[in-house]
Design goal:
Largest sheet of chain B: 4 strands, mixed
Helix content of chain B: 55-70%
Low-confidence stretches of chain B: 41-50
Oligomer: heterodimer
Radius of gyration of chain B: 29 Å
Shape of chain A: globular
Largest interface: A-B, 63 and 65 residues
Mean pLDDT of chain B: 81
Largest sheet of chain A: none
Radius of gyration of chain A: 21 Å
Strand content of chain B: 5-15%
Distance between the termini of chain B: 82 Å
Number of helices of chain A: 22
Number of helices of chain B: 10
Order of helices and strands of chain A: HHHHHHHHHHHHHHHHHHHHHH
Order of helices and strands of chain B: HHHHHHHHEHEHEE
Strand order of the largest sheet of chain B: 2-1-3-4
Helix content of chain A: over 70%
Low-confidence stretches of chain A: none
Mean pLDDT of chain A: 91
Number of strands of chain B: 4
Chain lengths: 444, 244
């Protein structure tokens, strides 16, 4: 258990060091915790991926050395720094009964998550047969990609799926010294806390009136608290880490200093980490590249910095992925051609109907989240300009891209929509809530 | 915070509508339509199908919530208070009352399903009391042709003898789940790890279809011949001549 604690401390320390090194502006202690924890876990997994792809053995000693080193370096840096660990920020103590209700609800969610993780086995198909199996393989072989993963005969679901979630889970198990499902399951669940905290800090700083309640709408979304197969916070899936890095990337873009290419490059790197947790993050990253380009019409340096940060982070993975076998991948890239899209138009109505139903009419899914997003957007001043200013247009563009994917998918009818769209909505829910919750002038 | 005269009754009208809906819907719609309304159509997950009482929980929780909403409506009307102004403070008084209302409805919906989650977890804890964690996994995952207890039995054998498992497939289209790779292969692969499962095409459904070096490289000691229409989990040790 000491090793497990060192892993988590190391993740926070590494994230904190990255925030300091890149001079990312964070405004409160809560935000610092949210960003450093999530980013730290992602950075550890990314580092392990780079080392693994170079053939370095990912042993327990190495994990503890990196994590322990990060803790030591962070401690020394903080001790030598005038500002210590960072900003304190404003108090977020609830001020109205509705905020107390949200806080009480969130406390109940945390209790149910803790009890579920301690007492129930993983339920979701992808969590058991995809992410956890790959994590166990990494733990067992101390390698990524292992010889088994490169072997087309080895039975594993989707060997070409992105590596960061199984790597993060495996690293936590390696640090702990044994692979226990209950412990590794904390990794994806931890990202739920990180998203809630990052969203709350950003929204409350921007609008102390509605901000905490909008963050509460996300934290208590029925999808996140109820459906073990549809993306609940304790389901062990990669959707929430993806949404965390997309949110971080957009927040950093919104607070990037004028003409500061470094902030844009870091934001691009964060967007790429989303793609390294789940394939859909690649689509969102590409849309963000386009969005940054539209936003900075006169300057080419900033979009270039964002695109470079994004592409350079992704390239090693694309190289490794090209060597991995396609066991039964959906091969969307190959299906994306005019004739296939025309073929898929037959089911366009059914797919769209199912998507709309899951977005707006499932009280046990997204609940009223997307009604809140839509109405807050309608009520915001300069709403058309805001689509571009806070990258909100990325949300409908992403859902349109997913619609096309559902048209060309080899899955039968609307089955894939029913199985996955609630989780797809989770990818962009924090971004959408932040974008509509920001005030007249976006201040991340 | 306070509303004058009839104003409070009118202002809290949304709460009355909500209360009436929650009290009447379960009675009028009947169990099946009520189930569909709340989105609990039969799903693909094993836990939901076993814990089929969620709709039953909702049939209690929803009217209970309706009763609470009605009580709150009456209390607020009698004391001439606006519920929104009470819960949301100044947010409900700046011409943005409807935003507060939509947030209130979203949070009420969330609270309802938070109650459902808590009730479901309590029910599950009751069903699973005294059952060890691994056995709980069996009950949760026992689906179709995946039988966790058989897998466990094999795991014990494989641990003592060592080696990995080969599944021979005579046919089946590559690339799509259910074709060459079956769902059962994946389920057993996840359950049997660290025993590795390898899948190979074998036209005669025989180990001799594969080179010896291929078998040796993967440490194959067990084989399943999956060349019929149905998958049957019956691993057999490789015969002496076949074993690498």
């Amino acid at each position: 258990m000491i090793g497990f604690a060192v892993f988590w401390l190391g993740a926070f320390a590494l994230g904190w060091l990255l925030i300091r090194a890149t001079r990312v502006p964070v405004h409160s202690r809560l935000e610092l915790l949210a960003w450093s924890g999530g980013w730290g876990v992602g950075a550890l997994a990314f580092l392990a991926f780079l080392l693994g792809s170079l053939g370095v053995r990912l042993g327990r000693g190495l994990v503890l050395l990196v994590c322990g080193g990060a803790v030591l370096a962070a401690g020394l840096t903080a001790a030598l720094s005038r500002s210590g660990f960072g900003p304190r920020g404003a108090s977020l103590r609830p001020r109205i009964p509705a905020e107390w209700i949200v806080l009480g609800g969130f406390a109940i969610v945390l209790c149910t998550l803790a009890v579920a993780i301690a007492t129930t086995p993983l339920g979701a198909f992808d969590a058991r047969m995809l992410w956890t199996l790959q994590a166990r393989l990494i733990f067992d072989t101390e390698a990524y990609p292992s010889a088994e993963l490169l072997d087309p005969a080895f039975v594993v679901a989707h060997p070409q799926y992105p590596p960061l979630l199984p790597l993060a889970e495996a690293l936590s198990a390696l640090a702990a010294g044994s692979f226990r499902e209950r412990l590794v399951r904390l990794v994806p669940t931890f990202f739920y806390l990180s998203v809630v905290a990052a969203l709350l800090a950003a929204l409350a700083r921007n609008d102390r009136r509605f901000g905490p309640l909008l963050a509460g709408v996300y934290a208590l979304m029925p999808t996140l608290i109820l459906d073990e197969h549809g993306g609940a916070a304790d389901a062990g899936l990669a959707d929430i880490p993806l949404s965390f890095f997309v949110l971080l990337s957009v927040l950093l873009l919104a607070r990037a200093r004028e003409a500061e290419w470094r902030d844009h490059a870091v934001a691009g790197h964060l967007a790429a980490l989303a793609g390294l947790f789940k394939n859909e993050g690649l689509v969102l990253g590409a849309l963000l590249v386009a969005s940054v380009s539209f936003q900075a019409r006169r300057s080419w340096r900033l979009p270039l910095a964002f695109a470079a940060g994004w592409a350079l982070t992704l390239l090693p993975w694309l190289e490794v992925r090209s060597a991995l076998p396609t066991v039964f991948e959906e091969q969307y890239g190959e299906h994306l051609n005019p004739s296939r899209i025309l073929w898929g138009l037959d089911r366009a109505g059914a797919v769209l109907g199912e998507m709309l139903q899951l977005t707006f009419l499932r009280p046990n899914g997204a609940g009223l989240t997307w009604w809140v997003v839509g109405l807050f957007w309608l009520a915001s001043p300069g709403r058309i300009a805001r689509l571009r200013d806070v990258h909100l247009w990325v949300v409908p563009a992403y859902l349109a891209a997913i619609f096309v994917v559902y048209l060309i998918t080899p899955w039968e009818g609307t089955l894939q929509v029913r199985l996955s769209f609630a989780r797809v909505l989770l990818h962009v829910a924090p971004l959408a809530l932040w974008a509509v919750g920001t005030g007249r002038r976006a201040r991340a | 915070m306070t509303a004058r005269g009839q104003g409070a009754w009118r202002e809290n009208g949304w709460l009355l509508l909500l209360a009436l809906f929650a009290l009447v819907a379960p009675l009028v719609l009947g169990p099946e339509r009520f189930r569909v309304l709340l989105g609990f159509v039969p799903d693909h997950g094993p836990l939901e199908t076993r814990l089929g009482s969620i709709p039953a929980i909702l049939r209690v929780v929803v009217p209970l919530g309706g009763g609470l909403a009605l009580a709150a409506y009456l209390a607020a009307g009698l004391t001439r208070r606006s519920v929104l102004a009470f819960a949301f403070g100044p947010l409900a008084a700046r011409g943005e009352r409807w935003l507060a209302l939509v947030l209130a409805l979203a949070l009420i919906d969330a609270a309802l399903f938070l109650g459902v989650r808590a009730a479901r977890d309590a029910e599950r804890a009751w069903v699973w009391r005294g059952i060890p964690l691994r056995e709980r996994g069996f009950r949760a995952y026992d689906q179709g042709r995946f039988v966790p207890s058989l897998a466990d039995e094999f795991l014990r054998l494989a641990r003592s003898r060592g080696g990995n498992l080969l599944i021979l497939r005579g046919s089946g289209e590559s690339g799509e789940l259910g074709g060459f790779v079956r769902m059962e292969h994946l389920r057993y692969a996840a359950h049997l790890f660290p025993v590795r499962i390898f899948l190979a095409r074998a036209p005669r459904c025989s180990v001799s279809d594969l080179p010896e070096a291929w078998l040796a490289e993967r440490g194959i000691r067990w084989v399943i011949r999956d060349c019929e229409a149905r998958f049957v989990f019956a691993p057999a040790p490789l015969a002496r001549g076949e074993a690498p």
